[in-house]
Amino acid sequence: MSDAKLSFPPEFLWGAATAAYQIEGAAQEDGRTPSIWDTFSRTPGKVLGGDTGDVACDHYHRWREDVRLMADLGLRTYRFSVSWPRVQPTGRGPAVQRGLDFYRELVDELLENGIEPMLTLYHWDLPQELETSFPSGDSAGGGWPERDTAHRFADYARIVGEALGDRVRMWTTLNEPWCSAFLGYGSGVHAPGRTDPAAALRAAHHLNLAHGLGAQALRSVLPARARLGISLNPSAVRPLTDSAADRDAQRRIDALANRVFSGPLLKGAYPGDLLTDTASVTDWSFVRSEDLAVIHHPLDFLGINYYAPAVVSGGADPSAPRHDGHNSADHSPWPAADSVAFHRAPGELTAMDWPVDPSGLTDLLLRYTAEAPGVPLFVTENGAAFDDKPNAAGQVHDPDRIRYLDAHLRAVHKALEAGADVRGYFLWSLLDNFEWAYGYSKRFGAVYVDYETQRRVPKSSAYWYAKAAASGRLPDVED
């Protein structure tokens, strides 16, 4: 039963989130060229079932229907990403106006329905040409390990800012740069599929630099009312035991998962232990003295994406399976951390085999309240995949997701009570969609999508969430 005292502030924003490549489709329409995810998903063996985002949820053609869904559910805000290759096909040069027009029309429709847009500039769909061009002459590849990519991102940010700055108030530069760097260039389970630990660390730095340069570019063209942030996916890293070895494993993974981004973003420096830990991989000579001041750009808010904690210990067996919450692969996403073992946290698992542990969300919100004093927080992603299927009447009941949302919103409320300045919550995701290397096999949506017909069916969780958004209180949870 719900707690009558458990209510959220009247100004709290209740929203949902999506990403361009996961929902838009129209992969070759109106001037759009391939992104690294188009190339990766079309490479045999990279994505389950050979799925691609070529059609996805066909949001590019059905966006009016999707905005009506949001309005019917009473969402107050919607976080979406812009497809970089739809707007600037080669990652360089002038914009394709038809691409920008799509987002102009989408934003206008959101505003007409009383829905505040939060625009994410980069949710992993780097234009393929930036990955396969080599400005430095590095034959191993371009992309985020290249400094030039950060400057290309700043140009792109300025283009989008000039086009939509009169309509959009909330902007995030990057979504989950950890995934872009360490899954894309370290373990290779995400696009572009490279497996080079040194490249992963270079990518992390140039993503940080891209945030700083992009924020500067946006500030130069946006009105003063605009608010700029970034969405990180920090990890609630916990030691398996209180032993010195396990505490050191926690420290080492915390540096790679969290402080590699929060250090330069919030403090203007990379943590010394990270540099020492990874000295066998790289000397960090790609970091220039002026970079850190650029990265340490003032934030108007910080986005926190959370799904599950990490449990670690020292003394790993390199041949043992990893339970680090990511696709298993022959290559680790954790440079110079072969001595660390990952363990599955106890409790219920989602369809992703991720443990359900809302306490990690409270911990992270309080941690970043302390580390970024005065900076408002948003939960920019939180949700779960379950094996959702329509019943004989065509309805989709998902009580597990309702329990998940209730528990995690209670975790947000606990952080609020403890002093965290949390301004809103974005459910991941509005729609079932292309779930990266898992293809269409995992369903995170509050709205069921029949991929054959593109019919949308709000699940029970969507109606439960709509009641929460309307009242600012959590409805009863029923089986």
TrEMBL record:
It catalyses: Hydrolysis of terminal, non-reducing beta-D-glucosyl residues with release of beta-D-glucose. One of its GO terms (biological process) is cellulose catabolic process. The active site is at E176 (proton donor), E381 (nucleophile). It comes from Streptomyces triticagri. Its EC number is 3.2.1.21. GO terms for molecular function: beta-glucosidase activity. Residues 315-337 are annotated as: Disordered. This is Beta-glucosidase. The keyword DNA damage does not apply. The lineage of its organism: Bacteria, Bacillati, Actinomycetota, Actinomycetes, Kitasatosporales. It holds the Pfam family Glyco_hydro_1. Keywords: Carbohydrate metabolism, Cellulose degradation, Glycosidase, Hydrolase, Polysaccharide degradation. Residues 320-329 have a biased composition (Basic and acidic residues). One of its GO terms (cellular component) is cytosol. It is an enzyme of class 3 (hydrolase). It comes from the Bacteria. Belongs to the glycosyl hydrolase 1 family. Substrate binds at Q22, H123, N175, Y307, W428, E435, W436. The keyword Ligase does not apply.
